[in-house]
Amino acid sequence: MSAELIFDARNATGESPVWNAQEQALYWADIPAGRLYRWNAADASIRSWQADEMLACIAMHPAGGWLAGMQSGLFHLRPQDDGSVLSERLAQVDHARPEMRFNDGRCDRQGRFWAGTMLLDMAAGARVGALYRYDGQLQQVLDDFIVPNGLAFSPDGRTMYLSDSHPTVQSVWAFDYDTDSGTPHNRRLFIDMKQHPGRPDGAAMDVDGCYWICGNDEGLIHRFTPDGRLDRSLAVPVKKPAMCAFGGANLDTLFVTSIRPGGDLSDQPLAGGVFALQAGVRGIEEPTFHP
User: Fold this and answer.
1) Is 201 a catalytic residue?
2) Is residue 223 part of a domain?
3) pTM exceeds cut of 0.90
4) Looking at the predicted structure, is the pLDDT value of residue 108 above 90?
5) Is the dihedral of CA 195, 232, 199, 74 positive or negative?
6) Residues whose CB is less than 8 angstroms from the CB of residue 191 and which lie 6 or more positions away in sequence, other chains included
7) What range does the domain containing 88 cover?
């Protein structure tokens, strides 16, 4: 299952890949650059748009464009033909400290948008991150995180997964999820990633209810069964895969974004690129935001 480079993006932090089935295109963001990208599967063409702030996570908006978690809050982004973005603020976030931003996020199966926040200086190890739910109103639901990540929902929507990817934590939790109220409860440890190679980063869910998560620093994408057993690991030719997403005509291609760190990259010249793997299983289409 060799990884195919689909675009040598050289993203500083390539994140939040989302497959748009209607367009048969993959969208993703480069967080610090504040840039939104689109790869067209039909001809492999690339387009990109420049936003006004760091751009961390996206979900399809019912009015077109994207609901985006950025630095100061949530926005409705409408990409324009000239490469600019029309940006409408939907909700401002009251961060616990200055110099914070949104990080990983996505919609639950009912279309509520969930996203976590983190301190820009990850090395500080400050537990000031929180997880928010947005259904027209922004509400903090969980806190005490350093780098909330790996958000995913089971196929029936009744289990929510969430990780903290900081080196001192490296845990993935599962929650029972009330689909009527959008409330997680009964938090328990799902995976102790210190027992596996790589820190937990962005995640995806397949039709079998298995949880795919990027093993950051180790160049691996792991698949865990619903009972938390490691089922398989796929390799990418970069050390820091950031997030994965299912797409393609049959939703059986696993797309992976990555991080391009500073320093000597002679051993990973494709760092920051976007890759495609044939995962051998189908994924689940991402819900559109439903306020």
Assistant:
1) yes
2) yes
3) yes
4) yes
5) negative
6) 163, 171, 172, 200, 211, 213, 224, 228
7) 4-278
